[in-house]
């Protein structure tokens, strides 16, 4: 760089004690690496007729191209950055001005850098998954589902225990769930089956982790649930996703930690309660005596969603008060209709159970199933004014010997 730049650097340094100088206000010490050596220049050495305009030669680190920047000796480094942005199209926030050299051979180097990132292995693995998915979507026959599954296995194998949440956040923010569901929605059967295999592999890996780590999976599984519910609500893969979501919710609820996350997802998990309750009602009112009550597995699935949903409803406000009638058209109102349907279905189912017991004797297993359902119904009744009384009337009127 020419002596002209040397002069500019010296003038900048001599102004360091001037209260009007703004160089250090914007973190100049972080922008100029290493720090420029300050040179003291007496005020008398400056000629009164000297121009305040400077011509600075900045050499690009990539390619070695030199850019000329015109500036005033009183300009701030921030202003210099913006002039460089106009010349080079490199955003100012991504520029690094590096001062290097001695007084007689000074130079400024402009380097555009990508921001460093944590967990580079996670980012690389996620990029590999996305690349493989889009190659399959383009019809590239050299990519198979085994490629994606192998990358998924690598993702979980390299995931540190202390960085589980960070890895899964990268997985979610990179839109991997959306890409896999897009692949599943593909008209090509090979793509559909491949995506199904990869999504189920992810669910299996989720369930295999310890309970205290499954809370990190909740946002990702919830995203899969949202997408699959829109794309294929009647597909078995959606049912599998719903079951996985229920297991994760149950683990998080049972641990007692991070329950606050339920406050923001009540509306999203409500459809699961509605869908499963509808199936329970159907089995409760079935006229086939041999069908019996819903299986314990069904009841457990409803419970896994109901507990977090109840927590969400009861903790929306600092103090919970019983919900009064008439109800609004929101989750609480819709849930009340489910409560009514389950209550009526319980009445019919228990009446049928009474007749079966009268004809065939004790059927303790079926009784225990009804008790599990009654526990859920009773829990729902605790949210509404007059809810407990309705459950009590059902039991008193029927005189059920459970």
From TrEMBL:
Start and end residues of each stretch annotated as Disordered: 1-27
Pfam family, one: ubiquitin
UniProt superkingdom: Eukaryota
All copies of domain Ubiquitin-like, residue ranges: 54-102
Biased composition (Low complexity): 1-16
UniProt cross-references to SMART domains, sorted A to Z: UBQ
An example molecular function term from Gene Ontology annotations: protein tag activity
Sections of the chain in a coiled coil: none
GO cellular component terms attached to this protein's record: cytoplasm; nucleus
Biological process according to GO: modification-dependent protein catabolic process; protein ubiquitination
InterPro entries, per database record: Ubiquitin-like_dom (IPR000626), Ubiquitin-like_domsf (IPR029071)
The name this protein goes by in its record: BnaC02g26310D protein
Organism of origin: Brassica napus (Rape)
């Amino acid at each position: 760089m020419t002596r002209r730049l040397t002069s500019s650097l010296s003038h900048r340094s001599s102004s360091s004690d001037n209260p009007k100088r703004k160089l250090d206000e914007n973190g100049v010490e972080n922008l100029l690496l290493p720090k420029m050596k300050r040179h003291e220049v007496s005020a008398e050495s400056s000629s009164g007729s000297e121009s305040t305009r400077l011509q600075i030669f900045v050499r690009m680190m990539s390619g070695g191209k030199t850019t000329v920047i015109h500036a005033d000796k009183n300009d701030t480094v921030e202003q210099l950055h913006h002039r460089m942005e106009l010349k080079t199209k490199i955003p100012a926030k991504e520029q690094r001005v590096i001062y290097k050299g001695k007084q007689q051979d000074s130079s400024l180097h402009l380097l555009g850098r990508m921001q460093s990132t944590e967990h580079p292995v996670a980012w690389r693995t996620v990029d590999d998954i996305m690349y493989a998915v889009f190659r399959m979507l383009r019809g590239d026959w050299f990519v198979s589902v085994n490629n994606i599954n192998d990358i998924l296995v690598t993702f979980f194998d390299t995931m540190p225990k202390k960085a589980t949440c960070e890895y899964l956040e990268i997985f979610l923010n990179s839109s991997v769930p959306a890409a896999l569901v897009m692949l599943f929605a593909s008209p090509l059967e090979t793509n559909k089956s491949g995506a199904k295999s990869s999504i189920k592999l992810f669910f299996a890996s989720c369930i295999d982790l310890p309970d205290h780590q499954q809370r990190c999976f909740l946002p990702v599984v919830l995203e899969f649930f949202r997408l699959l519910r829109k794309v294929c609500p009647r597909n078995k893969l959606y049912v599998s996703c719903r079951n996985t979501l229920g297991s994760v919710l149950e683990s998080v609820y049972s641990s007692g930690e991070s329950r606050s996350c339920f406050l923001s997802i009540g509306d999203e998990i409500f459809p699961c309660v509605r869908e499963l309750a509808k199936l329970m009602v159907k089995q409760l009112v079935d006229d086939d005596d041999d069908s019996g009550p819903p299986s314990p597995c069904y009841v457990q699935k409803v419970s896994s969603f109901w507990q977090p949903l109840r927590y969400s409803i009861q903790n929306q406000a600092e103090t919970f008060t019983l919900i009064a009638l008439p109800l609004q058209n929101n989750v609480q109102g819709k849930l009340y209709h489910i409560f009514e349907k389950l209550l009526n279905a319980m009445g019919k189912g228990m009446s049928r159970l009474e007749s079966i017991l009268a004809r065939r004797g004790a059927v303790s297993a079926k009784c225990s199933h009804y008790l599990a359902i009654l526990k859920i119904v009773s829990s729902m009744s605790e949210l509404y004014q007059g809810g407990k009384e309705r459950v009590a009337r059902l039991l008193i009127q029927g005189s059920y010997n459970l």
